[in-house]
Write a structure and sequence with these properties.
Length: 300
């Protein structure tokens, strides 16, 4: 009698365990987000399935804002080296970091007023690339700034042609790719026929068209353009011993820099190319006098 009761208890326990196992299997098969860093039964973060990940625009922005993008931007100081040379010694009431912040403010403001209108105009009217490139060249009186712009623009064209050129996915992309291809052909043919007036290949209009060809929105195109400029100036500041790399990263991540970029874009957003002009004339003097320095670590 006791043995029969024990067998019945064992069978009941087996049935209960099998029911629990079946229920566990059913719960395991149900799709649900993965929790990262769960604490007290509450997930700190949720990882979505690949089907809900964002589109390719963030990936493109990471490519275009990468410091390893071979544009040669870090070979130039955008006038910082000359500015430092012309401000020695600093007044006792002004620190090197404060002076640098003043320069960076002027540099971003200047780039916004002189260059952003051409970036926006080229993005909106890609068929006018050659005209806008020529107009930008005519509106850049500083020879040193002109050389830097052309060097970076032609480097960007090489990178786009060899690595970044996308497949045609829309009419706007097709127009941008067509205009860029035509411009590259014109540059190559003009280098052979040197007696003809050749296009210049300035950085700002070409940046706009490359971003358009990669389906980057116009707002992000303009923002990353100024952000990359600030990053290059901060890199120059580190190499010129104005600040350390951690301080530079702090400035790059600061709300102050974000505000400076947003204010520069807001001021220049509705400015036409014929109204674009230098808001900080001293910058042209500092950049232009860079090649007259007795010694320098950056290109002119």
């Amino acid at each position: 009698m006791t043995e029969t009761a024990n067998e019945r208890d064992v069978q009941d326990e087996i049935a209960r365990l099998e029911a629990q196992l079946k229920d566990a299997h059913s719960r395991l098969r149900q799709p649900r987000p993965q929790a990262l860093g769960a604490r007290d039964g509450r997930p700190l973060a949720v990882v979505n399935s690949p089907a809900t990940l964002p589109n390719s625009t963030p990936h493109t922005l990471l490519l275009l804002s990468d410091s390893a993008l071979p544009l040669g931007s870090f070979a130039f100081s955008s006038g910082l080296e000359s500015y430092l040379a012309h401000h020695k010694p600093l007044p006792k009431s002004t620190s090197a970091i404060t002076s640098f912040h003043h320069f960076l403010h002027l540099s971003i403001s200047s780039l916004g007023s002189t260059t952003i209108p051409y970036v926006l105009a080229t993005y909106i009217h890609p068929q006018d690339l050659e005209t806008l490139d020529n107009d930008f060249d005519a509106s850049t009186p500083c020879t040193v700034a002109r050389r830097a712009s052309v060097a970076q623009g032609r480097a960007l064209l090489s990178v786009w042609e060899r690595a970044l050129r996308p497949k045609i996915s829309s009419e706007a992309v097709e127009i941008a790719i067509g205009n860029l291809s035509s411009f590259i052909s014109l540059l190559k043919s003009s280098s052979v026929q040197s007696n003809e007036v050749s296009p210049n290949g300035h950085f700002a209009p070409l940046w706009a068209l490359v971003c358009l060809s990669m389906s980057v929105p116009i707002e992000q195109t303009a923002y990353v353009f100024l952000f990359n400029h600030a990053k290059a100036v901060l890199s120059a500041a580190v190499r010129a011993a104005v600040m350390g790399p951690y301080q530079a990263q702090g400035v790059l991540a600061s709300g102050w820099l974000q505000g400076e970029i947003e204010k520069a874009l807001e001021r220049s957003w509705d400015v036409k190319v014929e109204d674009a002009g230098q808001s900080a004339p001293m910058l042209d003097l500092w950049i232009g006098r860079h090649e007259l320095l007795y010694s320098r670590i950056f290109n002119s």
